[in-house]
Design brief:
The chain folds into two domains: 2-232, Spore Coat Polysaccharide Biosynthesis Protein SpsA, Chain A; 259-321. Helix 7 packs parallel to helix 9 and helix 10 packs antiparallel against helix 11. The protein starts with a strand and ends with a helix. Strands 1, 2, 3, 4, 5, 6, 7, 8 and 9 form a nine-stranded mixed sheet that branches. The chain has eleven helices and nine strands. With 322 residues, it is of the alpha/beta class.
């Protein structure tokens, strides 16, 4: 019997994994329950497997670490591999740049124990920057899994109807996942270096909520998201917000009943267009020099075209099938 599984999803994480594993292997207050660590290697081309093997040998007697290779590229597939391999009733997800605080595993377990109706619950995510971000970066920080939603616990469906916790630092009850999340995702998530199919965590949580499970914010669970210099460069930031924007259509549709979709879709499109126009009118002189404003413009534009992007994708899939 295992009470909790910590699944680390990684792609080319040989330089990042050791820090995450070291922090997990030094967790406090975990003596009274059983937990495990598994690493999902999402088709890496570096020495990720060798790094994990070294840790397996070093900690074989004290804390076994299991390793799985997931050849299908995409964070959504890596997380499904975690669920399939996990022995724990609770499954906690970390990426290879997520640094848990010393009692994160204990707090993840105890919250699940005290909230049996919680199908999922998220952490407070603080940034650890290699270099200082742009002065106004807070405006878009949540798009990069930097989440500060206050110091009080709350249920998302009662306090924040359209928000969800981030996938980084998320804990899911395995039963809730197996009952509600389909085997084949709409959104693949980050695929290697491609960032155009983000939103897999929101898709997963939409299914879990629709199945009647509660979703919570637990501010006591804290992880630090390491942001290297390269991820604050303009092109990378634009790729991330582009992926978030393009994911808006399928996520919105998952929230709606069938009869609501033809009525609310035009309203979503009109609102996205309104935001885009107002943003250009207000900041047109700064868009070429201000990274954050340029990212917001990219978000609004890709949210606007998201329905057309996914319609053409479906059309291409059907034409290739025939």
């Amino acid at each position: 019997m295992v009470d909790l599984t910590v699944g680390i999803c990684t792609y080319n994480g040989e330089t990042r994994l050791p820090r995450v594993l070291d922090l997990l292997l030094s967790q406090r207050h975990t003596e009274h329950f059983t937990w495990e660590i598994i690493v999902i290697d999402n088709n890496s081309t570096d020495h990720t497997a060798k790094v994990v093997q070294e840790y397996q040998l070093k900690y074989k007697s004290t804390h076994p670490i299991r390793y799985y290779f997931e050849p299908q590229q995409g964070l959504a597939f890596a997380r499904r591999c975690v669920i399939k391999a996990a022995k724990g009733d609770l499954v906690a997800f970390l990426d290879d740049d997520n640094l848990p605080t010393p009692n994160w595993v204990y707090l993840a377990y105890s919250f699940g124990l005290s909230h049996p109706k919680a199908g999922a619950y998220g952490s407070q995510i603080q940034a650890e920057y290699e270099v200082n971000p742009p002065p106004t970066f807070k405006r878009i920080a949540s798009l990069f899994a930097i989440i500060d939603r206050g110091q009080n616990q709350f249920r998302y469906d009662t306090h924040h109807q359209w928000l969800f916790p981030a996938g980084a630092g998320l804990v899911v009850r395995k039963q809730a996942w197996l009952q509600s999340v389909p085997k084949h995702p709409i959104l693949k998530g980050v695929c290697g270096k491609s960032l155009t199919s983000k939103g897999e965590d929101l898709e997963t949580l939409s299914y879990i909520r629709k199945a009647g499970w509660e979703i919570w914010h637990n501010p006591e669970m804290i992880i630090h998201h390491y942001i290297p210099r390269s991820r604050l460069e303009k092109e990378y930031l634009l790729q991330v917000v582009r992926g978030v924007g393009l994911s808006r259509y399928p996520i919105r549709m998952l929230r709606l009943a069938v009869w609501q979709k033809p009525f609310l879709l035009p309203l979503y499109v009109a609102n996205d267009l309104r935001k885009l126009i107002l943003h250009v009118l207000k900041y047109r002189k700064l868009l070429k020099t201000d990274i954050v404003l340029a990212c917001e413009l990219e978000l609004f534009w890709n949210s606007l075209i998201s329905p057309f992007y996914h319609w053409f994708q479906i059309k291409d899939i059907k034409s290739n099938f025939h």
